[in-house]
Amino acid sequence: xxxxxxxxxxxxxxxxxxxxxxxxxxxxxxxxxxxxxxxxxxxxxxxxxxxxxxxxxxxxxxxxxxxxxxxxxxxxxxxxxxxxxxxxxxxxxxxxxxxxxxxxxxxxxxxxxxxxxxxxxxxxxxxxxxxxxxxxxxxxxxxxxxxxxxxxxxxxxxxxxxxxxxxxxxxxxxxxxxxxxxxxxxxxxxxxxxxxxxxxxxxxxxxxxxxxxxxxxxxxxxxxxxxxxxxxxxxxxxxxxxxxxxxxxxxx
Length: 252
Fold this sequence. Notes:
Layout: E1 2-3, E2 16-21, E3 25-30, E4 36-37, H1 46-63, H2 65-75, E5 80-83, E6 86-89, H3 93-119, H4 127-146, H5 154-176, H6 183-212, H7 216-242
Antiparallel strand pairs: 1-4, 2-3, 5-6
């Protein structure tokens, strides 16, 4: 039984990585909600590693401002489309959920690919370039709702931005470290956690938006102002990261 408390009282996002070599190799991840790890040295710890990194993937989405704003930028117009100056409401909730879920899954698969390649050392893109790309994705997600530029093949657009987001989070995982004996297992768990968190957000947002899709206030008090806010934050983040200046905007 091992307990770890370092920095949790000052940084809720802090994580502690454990590699235990005692009658076999055991791995673990300390967090504010899991400060004590217990192991049976006669048994395998694969389930523990999976659970911990799965939770870390969920936490990454729900506490990542860049990730959440990007998702909101994709979800806000999922129930309406603006074409030829007119708003067209979606007619089938099941189709809307399916199309949006496929788009989210494409993002996750691309996210998993670039994250795995970067975390295992296959490539190491410049951090400023990657972080600027994440900011640009948030900017585009909001701006595309205000000035529609891409109507079709949003699946590929989501996948392209997923590659950028995956490369960005890889830096944090590399600093944290990956279990030497459970690297593939931990990466799989982390990405499944990301997908699960995104689907929960989808199920929380899309049905409610579908009910309100025909109301004027959804379009003019939620969709437009929300997209404008996302665009503005994305632009400030892009300037902040690309030019290495501190604008006082919440970092991601």
